[in-house]
Specification:
- It is a single chain.
- By secondary structure, the protein is mainly alpha-helical.
- It has 14 helices and 2 strands.
- It has a two-stranded antiparallel sheet with strand order 1-2.
Length: 310
């Protein structure tokens, strides 16, 4: 009896001795995640919380910094320059994003078709502009748009015609849209092309047996499968459009009468914080801009899912 008891108790004691090792082994995952979590908290959550804290105060000539509650947010909701900037980037989104996504879709379909010669060179040529920093791309296009020194102006002078005023009030949004489209078409093309490569080849073979041609396969198989990837690109475009900053900030030097400090919401918040020294109000404007992005993204998701269900 004692021998049996001892034999049963031995595995129990062994399992108890091994349990700390199992706990140590299970904690390895937390150690791998810890660097990301530390950086995420230090570089994202803490600055976000500090900005939220700043947005609840305001500076006064008499009395210094005082608690304002939601006063900065109330002021921002009635700020005509902020509202005009939000509406302007909304028009920019409607103008630029459909063109960019259509071009990215056509490029991805062309590369995936297998009928394109030098497909790798073509794919690299479209993607390279995304590797160019936004500052460099804007400076390059600013030179091309130049009314006095740009190649379009020089060509128009040679032909004795009037050069298009790319930096005028009526053409500024299309000019900005052209720069952003040139930069990010390749990025969206890579996302769509990766989604196309995940489609099983059996679907193409079955469609070919049924007599479907390349256009029919693209319309009936490839594009429907690409809807989730297109939706992802659309969400990224919503966020990027409302965060438009580098391009108008640099082109402001060439067209100061067209692009002011409130041309886009992001540029307006930057000007408030670093030019006007209204840090508290700039924080409130930034939070409202984030809310606008969340609402716009949710609206896109809701409308897209509703249309897919119908």
């Amino acid at each position: 009896m004692s021998t049996t008891t001892t034999a049963v108790a031995a595995p129990v004691r062994a399992s108890r001795r091994r349990s700390p090792r199992r706990l140590d082994h299970s904690s390895h995952g937390y150690l791998f995640v810890a660097p990301f979590m530390v950086l995420f908290v230090a570089l994202f959550l803490l600055p976000l919380a500090y900005a939220a804290y700043l947005s609840l105060f305001k500076e006064q000539l008499i009395g210094g910094t005082v608690f304002a509650g939601l006063g900065n947010y109330t002021r921002a909701l009635g700020d005509d320059r902020l509202i005009a900037g939000v509406l302007r980037v909304a028009r920019f989104f409607v103008l630029q994003v459909p063109v960019m996504l259509v071009l990215a879709l056509l490029a991805a379909l062309a590369i995936d078709s297998g009928l394109l010669r030098a497909a790798k060179v073509f794919r690299l040529g479209i993607f390279v502009p995304y590797a160019v920093p936004s500052v460099v791309a804007t400076l390059m296009w600013g030179y091309l748009y130049g009314p006095d020194f740009g190649p379009f102006a020089q060509l128009a002078d040679k032909l004795h015609v009037t050069a298009p005023s790319f930096l005028s009030d009526s053409l500024m949004l299309p000019s900005l849209a052209n720069v952003v489209t040139w930069e990010f078409t390749g990025y969206n093309m890579i996302i769509l092309y990766a989604a196309l490569r995940s489609i099983p080849s059996e679907l193409y073979e079955a469609a070919a047996v049924d007599g479907a041609g390349a256009w029919r396969i693209a319309w009936s198989i490839k594009i429907p499968v690409l809807r989730p990837a297109l939706l992802l690109c659309l969400i990224f475009s919503v966020i990027g459009s409302f965060q438009l900053f580098a391009e108008p900030n640099l082109l402001q030097r060439l067209a100061p009468s067209v692009i002011d400090s409130g041309y886009t919401p992001n540029l307006y918040a930057y000007s408030l914080a670093f030019t006007s020294q209204e840090v508290n109000y700039a924080a409130a404007v930034s939070f409202l801009l984030g809310l606008v992005i969340v609402v716009a993204s949710y609206a896109v998701l809701f409308l897209t899912n509703r249309r897919a269900r119908s």
